[in-house]
Amino acid sequence: MAIVNTKTGFLGGFTLLEMLIALSIFSVVVTVGSGALVTLQATQSHAINLQNAHDNIRYTLGTISLEILAGDNYCFGSSCKSGGSPVSFCSWAGSGCESFTFRQSLTKDTIDYRLNIVDGKGRVERQINGEGFIPMTDPDRTVTKLIFYTTGLIGFPQRVTIVIEVKAGDLNRPGGESRIRMQTAVTKRNITF
User: Fold this and answer.
1) 124 neighbors 117 (Cβ within 8 angstroms)
2) Strand, coil or helix: 130
3) Residue-wise pLDDT tens digits, 59-82
4) Angstrom distance (rounded) from CA 67 to CA 100
5) Sheet of 110-118: strands edge to edge?
6) How do residues 3-38 score in pLDDT, each as one tens digit?
7) Is residue 134 classed as helix, strand or coil in its secondary structure?
8) How many angstroms separate the Cα of 84 from the Cα of each of 74, 87, 152?
9) Which of 41, 54, 126, 186 has the fewest C-beta atoms under 10 angstroms from its C-beta?
10) Under the phi-then-psi rule, with left for phi > 0, alpha for psi from -120 to 50, and beta for the rest, what region is 51?
11) Containing structural domain, residue 76
């Protein structure tokens, strides 16, 4: 309510009660608005983290798939060096393998892929001709599963199914962790000229 000064006819201002009410309404609006902003920022950060993890997995699976596609001798572990035993150990019935070895068609390089746990975090690693494993996945992501399943016999089209699972997000925040599972299948090319 406004106060009228009888000498000047001026309207004074707001009363203390009106100011307190206006200030309290403003405070409630700012509190609700800032809470929504913080939630929106956390959601955006989580979405960006998931997208980055998804891109990293997609790149890793794509690289592995292209190299396996051009391979000419699928084998398991050290059996590649001794002539190439079939990969029947990695069958669906045998629960697959956490490592996979094959020989590239053109270069005749032996390539190994495996899941390796370092400091409690899993990562996909690649090795060429036994020269030491090199990590392929982002060190900020934790790969929890990398399994290779094979079907087919040597001399016939062989198929490799790759399953990968990654933990992503803020692992220290409750509900901030997400798991991403992806799978792809590669059928070996049998090209003869």
Assistant:
1) no
2) coil
3) 999 999 988 888 877 765 544 544
4) 12
5) 71-75, 99-104, 110-118, 121-128, 134-135
6) 666 666 566 678 889 899 999 999 999 999 998 998
7) strand
8) 7, 9, 15
9) 41
10) alpha
11) 35-187
Kindly state whether residue 155 falls inside one of the protein's structural domains.
yes
Distance, CA of 65 to CA of 63 (rounded, Å): 5
Query: Is there a domain that residue 1 lies in?
Result: no
Per-residue confidence (pLDDT) for residue 83, from 0 to 100: 47
Q: Residue 61 has which token pair?
A: 């699976």
pTM: 0.72
Q: What does the H/E/C string look like for 163-183? A: EEEEEEECCCCCCCEEEEEEE
Domains contained in the chain, number? 1
Answer whether residue 16 is part of any domain.
no
* Distance of alpha carbon 147 from alpha carbon 149, whole angstroms: 7
Residue 21, domain member (yes or no): no
**166: exposed, middle or buried (Cβ count in 10 Å: 0-12, 13-18, 19+):** buried
